[in-house]
Amino acid sequence: MTDPEVATAVRRVDLGRVLIAMVLVVGTAAIVMQDRWEWVFGADEAQTQDVDAPTIDVAEIDVVTDRLFRITPGNGSEARYVVRERLVGTQQTTVGTTSVVGGDILVDTVDASRSWVGEIVVNVEMFMSDSDLRDKRLRHDFLESTHYPFVRFQPTAMSGLPVEIVEGEPVAITITGDLTVKETTASVVFEGSVVLHADHLTAEMSAVIRGSEFDVGPINIARLAHTDDEITLEFDLVAHEVDLDSELSGSLDTDLPPDEFAGGAFAAEVQPVLEANCVGCHISGGPGWSTVAFDTAGDAAAIADDIALVTGAGYMPPWLPSDLSVDFHGDWSLTDEELATLQAWAANGGGLDVAPGTALTATAELLNPIRRDIVTRPLQPYVGSLDKKDDYRCQVYEVPDPEGDGTWITGISFEPDQKSVVHHAIISRVPASALAEIERRSAEDEQPGYECFVGEGLTSDGVYSIAGWAPGQQPAHYPEGVGIFLESGDVIVNQIHYHFDHETPPDRSTIVLQTASPEEVAAGMRHIQGRAYTTPAEMPCTPEERATGAPLCDRSAVLVELAELYGPTAALLPDIMIRFCGGELSDYDQLDGTVAHSTCDLPAANTGTIFSVLGHMHEFGKAYRMTLHPDTPEEIVLLDIPVWSFEWQLNYLPVDDIRIERGDIVRFECWWDRSLVHLDEPRYVTWNEGTVDEMCYSSIRVIPDP
């Protein structure tokens, strides 16, 4: 893009408005992994009943020459996955096993080379490793076993079988077939051996697959666990001969083993720590319950070792800022004493001195409640389409103002109607003068609202972002005498990002407003001020990736794709970011191995006391830092996150009053690492809205002087 083109684009785009609106999670406490929605929030019980493995048709069996062997749960068969894992910085090999395996094997006693294996079915909800927490996370977030509880292998070819099999002697065989995981089917080759015994058959088979091919890896959970993409699948099969005259069944029904708990100290020391720091989130229906729920003492005791692991690593409770940052309100970190209590409990067996069914009750508020002075919803629900999995829709919310004198908002909250499909929301104030434009946009199709990218998608003056939401987000609650003023006739436009995987339920999400009382208004209100600050986000392919000839390693090809996905403005934004920081592309497109770094010094836009700071990146994010008065004796690190986590993007509220003046220099820095995200096709990564795009977005909200 030429300099005149950039200048024209900058004039067309109100950066302060568009960039505030563009951020995917503005002011969030995002307790959200990618692809975790309500449909995975099902009951935390593995499906173990009422499912059969296909059986070979007895009518096609030669009762004279053929012998039928059946694999059933509990007969000694086992399926395993084996993967290299880096857990809290320690390399190890992780093995998960399940005995819920079913299928038939037919052996021809006259010509063994004509023998056949039927479809093998494995219940992946029953995979168990040495960590119950790992198992739940794997099932819910990667295998998605609530929706796809079974993996199936359908053989298509076999080789290596001789004409005659000698009992007790192993025979090397190769089985090629179609492996189906979730909605992906691919050809896989298993190699191993089979042994025929007097009344049963045993087989040991293994294959190597890539998790990315089946959309189950590699797993990357910042600060906790990382896995290789290569996974070994192993079968140890035991198939007992079936009497053809008996009632045939391929049932995979099995029972979950009951939990057993040792005795130990819990109520006096451990329970208070959990109830004060964990239960408010990890309780049925809470933001973190899809990973694990602490409804009872038994729920906690069942994963005592995991609790010690994640708290000892600092992964839970989640608190990302380092000690370089200023002190913040709401620090969720555990004290050294609390950590020691949990570690000692787990080391002593994680026992209980109360009944396992003893209910756990949160003793600390998870959310900051606000008054429900105004509750507003769109006039009609929105129903999307599975043809458009990622759908950005702007809905209009009216704000009643019977007195006609405007409304001071002192708190705001978004309540999603259909949590299964609502991914995030960006909430904007829109003046009455923009209603005609909204009506034109709404007439573009027959659905309520209108399709919108890059925020609310309006060109009218006076539009600006006032809030954002993602799962786990706390309501915004402003200090006394501070708020947001809506003039009479103003409306709220809410850009909702819907993600449709399996269903398109009608959504009519709610916005709740707390308003100032007449007494507060009479005493004087100040309008909280905010500004978005952006730093270029550029991460080229590595030399190895470029050597593959991947077309999207060409930055210009990526810009063309962005224009097709999100409109022409989206393709202009990466270059606008660079010019806005006064640099050139060559200043930002370098790699140190797989790591890219970007920095930008910008003048502060507002004068007053800092109310909150926010940093935002996507999944390649490695580290983030925001510094006031950099390289001076007055330097203050406002926010330092040495290990970024896409799951946790909070508005941080400083404890001390920090003065900022319009024009003060603030340095914004972001680091990204290409190794943190697996890409099926290598691509140049630059600034934009998609999951495989990146951002270096920052926000500083300021309470103006009286």
Task: Report what the structure shows.
The chain has a domain at 51-241: Beta Barrel (Lipocalin), CATH 2.40.128. It contains 12 helices and 33 strands. It is 15% helix and 32% strand. The strands form 6 sheets. The protein has an 8-stranded antiparallel beta barrel. Strands 13, 15, 19, 20, 22 and 23 form a 6-stranded mixed beta sheet that branches. The protein is globular and about 95 Å long. The protein is α+β, with helices and mostly antiparallel strands and 706 residues long. α6 (304-312) runs antiparallel to α7 and α11 crosses α12. The model is unreliable at 1-44 (pLDDT under 50).
Summarize it:
By secondary structure, this protein is α+β, with helices and mostly antiparallel strands. Helices cover 15% and strands 32% of the residues.
